[in-house]
Amino acid sequence: MSLLRHACIVLLMALLTLGVGSQAVAQSADPNREISTSVGAANADTWRQVRSGEVDANYRDSRHDSNYNLINAAGQTWREIRNHWVTPFGLIALGGMIAMIVLFYVIFGRKELDERPTGRKLFRWSALERSLHWSVATLFIILALSGLNILYGKFVFRSLFGDAVWGAMISASKVSHNYLGPLFGILLLIILAKFLKHNLPKKHDLAWFKKGGGLIGKGHPDAGFANAGEKVWYWLLATAGVAVIISGLVLNFPNFDQTRDTMMWANVIHAVAALGLTAVALGHIYIGTIGTEGSLEGMKTGYVDEAWAKEHHNLWYEEVKDQAVDAESLDQSTSDDGGKPAPSQPG
Question: Ranges for the Cytochrome b561 bacterial/Ni-hydrogenase domain (predicted)?
Fold first, then answer.
């Protein structure tokens, strides 16, 4: 009898297990039935009420003091703006700038100096200023590349290298972007404050624009320590760059009671401003390197040839031309000081 009783219990448990399993399979095969058993009256009218906010707190999300619905229409609006406007804008801005640079180089080539370099040097950038410039430039490039990878990388690298490599790339991009962003913001504010006096608008800046920086008409337009084009880049950094910093901090530190709407708009502002700055930065990099003879030398050594200064910054040249030193004596002074640069002169 005992053996029979145990056999009956085992058989009963097996039948119950089969019943539960078949019910689970039936539910997984029929999504509507699964929804009806797990949610209850989750019909179309209920979801419309959830979306419009007409239901009680049971249908709201679980965050502290949250007033958002479980379904938030603003999130879909943000998604459409990001995918249909921001992403194409970035491709157009970056692709358009690259095309303009290539076209400009093909038509005009590298801007050579009208007069041969004299070999006499003028002090232009201190070691501190060059360090600030290269630090900000390096951080800008890292942030630009990591940001572009976050926005566009999945369409390129994921299909090329697979999920494992793509996962490592996006993780590295996110970490570098989040941690280097605040440092970039601090250094950018320092560099903006330091160079403000050189970038205040002047009357002769209008003439510089009318002559296209020297491309239109004969002769070179007047320019002080900074020409009008450099001033435009400065004020773009002071406006769009600051917008990137502020919006980036809002996104980077979501624990200061920002609402979900604030985070979404910060994301849009951050992306648009950063993409625009990156596009303009390509032009700035081109002009400062292969585009113009003698420009890169100043930011590498701190000194520029007086022929370059006279041609591109004639008003500043008139102020400092009596401080020019021979390149040979400058090299000798550097050698005698154990590799230290010659004493700085006022710029």
Answer: 124-302
